[in-house]
Design brief:
The chain is an all-alpha fold. The chain contains 7 helices and no strands.
Length: about 200
Amino acid sequence: MKTVDVAHADVEKARKAAVSAQGAYLSSLVEEWRAMAQEKVRALVVEKQPQVTQAMGTKVSEFRHQLSAVIDDGADQVAELFSKASDPDQLARQVRRTYNSRRVAPSLGGYKGPIELLTQPLHDLLQAHGYSPDLIKSGAAAASYSSFGFTASDFPLPSLGVREAYADAIEPYGHALLDLADAEHAEASSQVAGIWDNS
C-alpha cells in the first residue's frame, strides 16, 4: 500500500492533469456553443421564418450585429457557467472501485441550469424581434412558444474525443483520492494500534 506522502503526491499529479483536461473541455464547449448558435439562428432567420427577417428591411444588418454580440457574450460566459458542472474535484469524488462502474461525466442539464442561463438572452432577443425561438428546437414548420428556452438535448457537447479525454483524466484522479483515503486510514490504524497496545 502507498504511504500517505506518496498518495498525496499522486493526487496532486492527477488533479493537475484533470484540471488541464477540464480546460480543454470548456474551450471545446465555447466553440460548440458559438457554432450551434450561429447555425441555428441562421436556419431560423433565413429558412424557417424569412418573412420576419424580410420585414426588417434595412435593419437586418443592425439586428445581425445584435445577435453576434449576444452570441459572443454567451461564449465569454461558457467557462464560468459550466465550471461547476464540470468541476474535476466533484467529479473525481464520484469515481468508484466497483466492477463495471459507469464512467463519470459532467451533467450539463437541469432546470434553470447553465444551459438556460446561457441561451435565454438569445431566446429573448429573437422573440423580441418577432421570431418563434422554439423553431430552433424543432424541425416543424411552426412551434408554440415555450418559456423553457433551450434544453440539454438542444445544447451540443464537446466532441467524443474531448469528452473521452476528460473522462480518462477524471478516472485516475478519483482512484488517487481513494488510494489516499486508504493510506490515511491505514496510517491512522497503525498509530492507534501502537497507542492502544502499549497503553
